[in-house]
Design a protein that fits this description.
Oligomer: single chain
Number of strands: 8
Helix content: 40-55%
Strand content: 5-15%
Order of helices and strands: HHEHHHHHHHHHHHEEEHHHHHEEEEHHHH
Strand order of the largest sheet: 3-2-5-6
Distance between the termini: 90 Å
Length: 478
């Protein structure tokens, strides 16, 4: 075995720090980007934030300063004081510049996202425990019961397990049962139920005895809930000996109950979405622009930048030059991100004008490669720029990825998008006869009649993606 040195020439791609930064910014959501830029502002003294409103106001002030001054001097009469019914709030509001940095006026329905005060179900129940005149022992039992309630409002353990967790031999199972019954009448009614039947019966018990159809509803829930769940109305009428009209009324009462009482209490933090792109129709054309208010505008601090040439020592000069270069890279990467996002969004809107004009049924099949070819970018870039980026339009707010869907062949040799087919399935089901709901096979036949060739299992998959139950569960009494 012999050791030696050997030289070899080769070429390979190397990702520069600037390119890495540009790619990273491209895949960040708006909220993540705001946090990233805020950290950069705090760590780099050569960066500073500017506001689009300030730039516009500064330009307008410079243009109108001489005119305003001349008009004020030429005015012969100046009021000594403001009218008595004028408040400072009115003065401030009148002088406050309006505008969003885009063509959207104050009358446009841009989404306003407000925070919500959230409270867990357990916190809400414990608040009621504190207000209930329980003994110390009963309070401890109630606390254990509340701890065992899931987010749906159901009890997740048996009473024996609750009793065992108490670790007190003097507490009996009857005491736990008694406290449970009191907790089950907390708001929301039916919470801490052991199963669906128990939950519905607890809610029915809160109705006055003279409530119409209460006895029939209680009979159905207590003894024949399985038939009701399967929408087997014929068997239900046979075993209960109820007429169809009576069964309808009893079912209306049952349908007014809440099978998931815990969900009526806010248990999770609201999710905030800031639109990156604004789409609207102006003079018959769809216009696309960036939401300028969603992203901070950065610029170089010229005062600090000038200090680089006048630094007293090399370390200070190197520090300023290094931060200046980083600031320039960041601003350039941010501009590149915004330009890419705008180009891709305009291309998407151009391709999907049918959707913006007429809705989901007119969505065209489109994949990443279609947009990548038009904007001359790689598919991976399109994937990054459409992930967690949102578009606000008159039809609502959509993630850019929403506009991409697979295609299904039509009888005439054309193509239809899976999104359009899902919308069509939803429309057909919405118009069906509740007494005779459409099966997946029937939906397949109806789609075929419209020239859309799909398999029954594909229709079933689309229906399930819309959270629509099968036909046997959609059957209703008319």
């Amino acid at each position: 075995m012999k050791q030696g040195l050997q030289l070899r020439l080769s070429q390979q791609l190397a990702m520069t720090p600037q390119l890495q930064q540009a790619i990273r910014l491209l895949q960040l959501s708006t909220l993540e980007l705001q946090q990233e830029l805020q950290q950069a502002l705090e760590s780099n003294p050569l960066l500073e934030q500017t506001d689009l409103h300030e730039e516009i106001e500064t330009q307008e002030v410079r243009e109108n300063e001489a005119l305003d001054t001349r008009e004020a001097l030429e005015q012969k009469e100046m009021p000594d004081e403001l009218p008595l019914d004028t408040s400072w709030d009115e003065i401030y509001t009148a002088g406050t510049p309006s505008g969003t940095g885009s063509d959207y006026s104050s009358d446009d329905e841009l989404p306003v996202y407000q925070g919500e005060t959230t409270q867990s179900l357990q916190d809400y129940l414990m608040w009621q425990v504190d207000l209930t005149p329980f003994s110390d022992t009963d309070t401890a039992i109630a606390t254990s019961i509340v701890d065992a309630v899931d987010e749906m409002g159901y009890l997740t353990v048996s009473l024996e397990e609750i009793l065992e967790s108490m670790g007190d031999d003097e507490i009996t199972i009857d005491e736990v049962e008694a406290v449970l019954k009191r907790v089950q009448r907390f708001d929301p009614v039916g919470v801490a139920a052991r199963d669906l039947r128990d939950c519905l019966l607890i809610q029915l018990s809160q109705y006055a005895r003279e409530t119409p159809w209460l006895v029939e509803a209680r009979l159905i829930v207590s003894d024949h809930l399985d038939l009701l769940a399967n929408h087997d109305f014929r068997s239900l009428m046979r075993v209960t000996r109820l007429k169809e009209e009576v069964l309808k009324e009893a079912m209306c009462l049952i349908q007014s109950l809440d099978p998931r009482p815990g969900q009526s209490i806010q248990t999770s933090e609201p999710e905030y979405v800031i639109p990156d792109i604004l789409v609207k129709k102006t003079q018959g054309r769809w216009t696309v622009e960036l939401n300028a208010d969603s992203i901070p505008r950065l610029k170089i601090n010229q005062q600090y930048a000038a200090m680089g040439t006048n630094a007293r020592n090399d370390s200070d000069s190197q520090f300023i030059r290094s931060n200046l270069q980083e600031a320039k890279w960041l601003i350039k990467s941010l501009e590149s991100r915004n330009d890419t996002l705008l180009r891709v969004s305009r291309c998407i809107v151009e391709q999907q004008q049918g959707f913006f004009e007429h809705g989901e049924e007119h969505m065209k099949p489109m994949v990443l490669a279609d947009i990548a070819q038009v904007v001359e970018m790689h598919e991976s870039t399109i994937s990054r720029v459409t992930t967690q980026k949102y578009l606000h339009s008159p039809r609502g707010i959509f993630e850019l990825k929403y506009f991409f869907s697979s295609h299904v062949n039509t009888e005439g040799g054309g193509e239809a998008s899976s999104t359009a087919i899902r919308a069509l399935v939803k429309k057909l089901i919405a118009a069906e006869n509740p007494a005779k709901p459409l099966s997946d096979s029937k939906l397949t036949t109806m789609l075929s009649a419209q020239g859309i060739m799909v398999a029954r299992r594909t229709v079933a998959k689309y229906r399930e993606s819309l959270s629509i139950p099968p036909s046997n569960q959609r059957k209703q009494l008319v």
